[in-house]
Specification:
It is a single chain. By secondary structure, this protein is mainly alpha-helical. The protein has 4 helices and no strands.
């Protein structure tokens, strides 16, 4: 899975990986699940995209809450125009909406964030 946790933006500190990070359900999935077809691949239909996003979100839901919150916290460190794919249980549109509303940390959206 391609994540941005190893390449955190310069303006934010990289959070230490939480306990259990190595056992997360997404560890052996391909980038396509989270970000869609890569360059040079056939474009997916809207129906295929929705199905893929739902599968990615279900995979996130299998993860312990602390790990989902960690992924979401990392993703929220990027600007709205740099949000891609599914991360922390939310798709890019959902994360952009949070960022555009001024949310920069999951602590700003309460304990149910990424639940």
């Amino acid at each position: 899975m391609r994540t941005r946790t190893s390449a955190a933006p310069a303006h934010s500190g990289h959070l230490p990986e939480p306990i259990g990070w190595e056992q997360r359900p997404c560890i052996d999935t391909g980038d396509e699940l989270w970000f869609g077809p890569g360059d040079g691949a056939d474009r997916e239909s809207l129906k295929e995209s929705r199905r893929r996003v739902e599968l990615a979100k279900r995979t996130c839901a299998e993860c312990p809450l602390a790990l989902r919150r960690y992924c979401l916290e990392q993703a929220l460190q990027f600007p709205a125009d740099e949000q891609y794919g599914v991360c922390g249980g939310l798709d890019s549109h959902e994360r952009r909406a949070l960022i555009n509303a001024g949310v920069r940390s999951i602590s700003e959206i309460g304990p149910a964030a990424a639940a």
